[in-house]
Design brief:
The complex is a heterodimer.
Chain A: H1 5-14, H2 21-42, H3 77-81, E1 87-88, E2 91-92
Antiparallel strand pairs in A: 1-2
Chain B: H1 13-21, H2 27-40, E1 47-50, H3 52-68, E2 78-82, H4 109-116, E3 120-125, H5 167-174, E4 180-185, H6 191-197, E5 200-203, E6 223-228, H7 231-241, E7 272-276, H8 286-301, E8 305-309, H9 317-332, H10 351-362, H11 365-378, H12 384-404, E9 410-414, H13 429-434, H14 440-445, E10 449-456, E11 462-469, H15 474-487
Parallel strand pairs in B: 2-3, 2-4, 7-8, 7-9
Antiparallel strand pairs in B: 1-3, 4-6, 5-6, 5-10, 9-11, 10-11
Helix pairs in contact in B: 2-3, 5-6, 7-15, 9-11, 9-12
Classes of the chains: A mainly alpha, B alpha/beta.
Chain lengths: 99, 505
């Protein structure tokens, strides 16, 4: 199975990445090279094997904790927004999305 | 007593901490000495940011602490952080244009813990963009003293790469621009540069060190660890870095912190060292093989036993890792959208266009490639075939290790198939991925892994021996490395020309 330039366009859109046509072409050939080595993985019989997400779960039960949904941090809005590209009255500014 | 000022950088962390405790040298004097070296050797490209005022303020506080006689294990010892840990006192870039000018409102847990142990921060160290790379050639950030991105150079041969992604970290230790540093390891990013630069580095069991404030690449793989000249020094730092951080990192394990130095010096007579045949196949270069074989024979002299073992899915680790890590990266890096922090494109027509242009401008080629791979394997219709299949094989790889540990205590092999290559020599991304083969299996299994200097190969370049331990056996791993370092002097060798005048470029 090889990716096509339409696939690259579709994935780039999903990933919200603008690619120039030169970049798209290079990406297509590099991704196809890469998926060449992935083929080996497809041949492995994994029936009955549970997926492993936290690696230590290979030997013991690991619970991914959820904390109580309560505010635990002081309000640092000003400090936190110092890095924002555009802020007004404590709000993050983005281009208009509703007409 | 200022007679130490010319050789402070030759002291181990433990010796330096002792001199600081006994007030033979001050923390301010020590910090200044290393700051001067960092500036004098800036052409190596190791550091990306200093803040002398902040460093010296921390050093003065350390001196005040030392004066009370209540010093911590690292009080006054200068360290530097990979620029993937967020820091209040220094800019944080993760090697990316995306974070140019970013100032974190908080410190990473690892940064806080080392500061609590008394360490003084010298600055931030170069790395591959978002820790994606094996040569540190993917950094988009200008090193200290440069106006544009410049190569990070291996101090053993300035025309070669330092390895990656913690390349700046490895160079800082090898060139003695810091006694010890932090790094992160997702698929080998501590062990491989440690091997290439002739130093010692350890990645602990996944979940030991908090990932809070460590800019996320692949959340189920990323781990922080120390890099220093010796295993003894790594043990000192690792003991300070680890421990539960239950409210801030949901993957942090609820396991009490250990003093990893406590078992250093234990006898290793009878230690069973597993030697996986798959780590010694055709892909291994002869010079690396010779150095690793000699190191294994040294262990035999120390009373260890070599046991042949099998890790049959070693080669599969490459596709499995390069599916899982990019999938997690594509998800993690979705936060870089030009809204809350980081770069935003100047010209755009609407919100989606702003996202696309912002990300096109902010990310480098390797990061874009991995985001694309990740977005693809997670997209509708492909998830089961790629991501889920990779996670299942991941369990089989972890099970292979448990089967092997029935017959051995630690596993040993090369950290990388070759010594450090020439700058620019591996422009093909796939060639870089394939070279990660020996570090990826332990990463996927979440096992602790260490690289220690084991000898020299082609071009007089350092070769690292990788030791892999079972879960939570960092102490045993560090002791095995320590015993080797008691019997050999590879970790004490230094690149030629590291005098006060610095390396001539």
């Amino acid at each position: 199975m090889a990716l096509t330039s339409q696939d690259i366009e579709r994935i780039a859109n999903l990933a919200r990445l603008e690619l120039s046509s030169t970049e798209s072409e290079r990406m297509l050939s590099q991704l196809n090279d890469f998926f060449g080595i992935v083929e080996k993985m497809q041949a492995v019989d994994t029936s009955g094997v549970a997926p492993l997400s936290h690696p230590v779960a290979a030997i013991e039960d690991v619970q991914l904790r959820l904390r109580e949904d309560i505010a635990s941090e002081p309000n640092n809005r000003e400090a936190n927004q110092l890095n924002a590209p555009a802020v007004e009255r404590g709000l993050f500014l983005v281009p208009k999305v509703i007409e | 007593m200022t007679s130490h000022s010319t050789d402070l950088h030759d002291l181990s962390v433990s010796a330096l901490a002792e001199q600081l405790r006994t007030r033979q040298v001050s923390a301010v004097e020590t910090a200044q000495h290393f700051l001067n070296r960092a500036k004098a050797q800036h052409t190596l490209g190791a550091y990306v940011a200093l803040n002398e005022e902040a460093t010296l303020a921390q050093a003065r506080a350390a001196d005040a602490q030392l004066a009370t006689g209540n010093a911590g294990t690292l009080t006054g010892v200068p360290i530097a952080h990979k620029d993937i840990f967020v820091t209040r006192d220094f800019p944080t870039t993760a090697g990316s244009k995306m974070l140019a000018g970013y100032r974190s409102p908080f410190d990473a847990t690892v940064v806080t813990r080392l500061a609590e142990a008394g360490a003084v921060t010298l600055g931030k160290l170069n790395c591959d963009e978002f820790a994606m790379g094996s040569a540190n050639e993917n950094s988009a950030v200008a090193p200290l003293g440069f106006d544009a991105p410049a190569p990070v150079r291996n101090p053993w041969d300035l025309s070669r790469v330092p390895g990656g992604s913690s390349g700046g970290s490895a160079v800082a230790v090898a060139a003695r621009l810091a006694p010890a540093v932090t790094g992160t390891d997702t698929g080998g990013s501590i062990r491989q540069p440690a091997s290439f630069c002739g130093i010692t580095g350890i990645k602990p069991t996944y979940g030991r060190a908090s990932r809070y404030g460590m800019i996320a690449f692949a959340s189920s793989l990323d781990q922080a660890g120390p890099m220093a000249r010796s295993a003894e020094d790594c043990a000192l730092l690792l003991s300070a870095m680890c421990g539960p951080d239950l409210d801030r990192d949901s993957t942090s394990l609820d396991r009490p912190v250990e003093n990893f130095g406590a078992t250093l010096g234990n006898d290793i007579a009878g230690l069973r060292i597993g030697v996986p045949a798959e780590f010694f196949g055709d892909g291994l270069s002869v010079d690396v093989r010779a150095a690793v074989d000699a190191a294994l024979q040294e262990y035999v002299k120390l009373g260890a036993k070599l046991v042949p073992i099998a890790l049959p899915r070693t080669e599969l680790s490459i596709p499995v890792y390069y599916i899982l890590a990019p999938a997690e990266a594509s998800s993690n890096l979705s936060r870089f959208d030009g809204v809350k922090f980081g770069h935003r494109a100047k010209d755009y027509v609407d919100l989606v266009d702003m996202y696309k242009k912002t990300r096109a401008e902010g990310f480098g080629d390797e990061v874009k490639r991995r985001i694309m791979i990740g977005a693809y394997v997670l997209s509708e219709g492909y998830y089961d075939a790629y991501y889920l299949q990779a996670q299942k094989i991941r369990r089989m790889i972890a099970d292979d290790f448990q089967a092997a540990f029935q017959h051995c205590d630690v596993i040993a092999g090369p950290a990388a198939p070759t010594v450090a290559w020439q700058l620019g020599a591996k422009s093909d991304p796939l060639a870089n991925y394939l070279a990660d083969i020996y570090t990826l299996p332990a990463s996927l299994a979440g096992l602790p892994g260490l690289s220690l200097p084991a000898g020299f190969g082609a071009g007089g370049m350092p070769v690292g021996l990788q030791l892999i331990g079972n879960y939570f056996r960092e102490g045993q791993l560090l002791n095995a490395a320590h015993r080797f370092q008691q019997a050999t002097d590879f970790h004490l060798r230094q690149p030629a020309g590291l005098g006060p005048q610095g390396l001539a470029l």
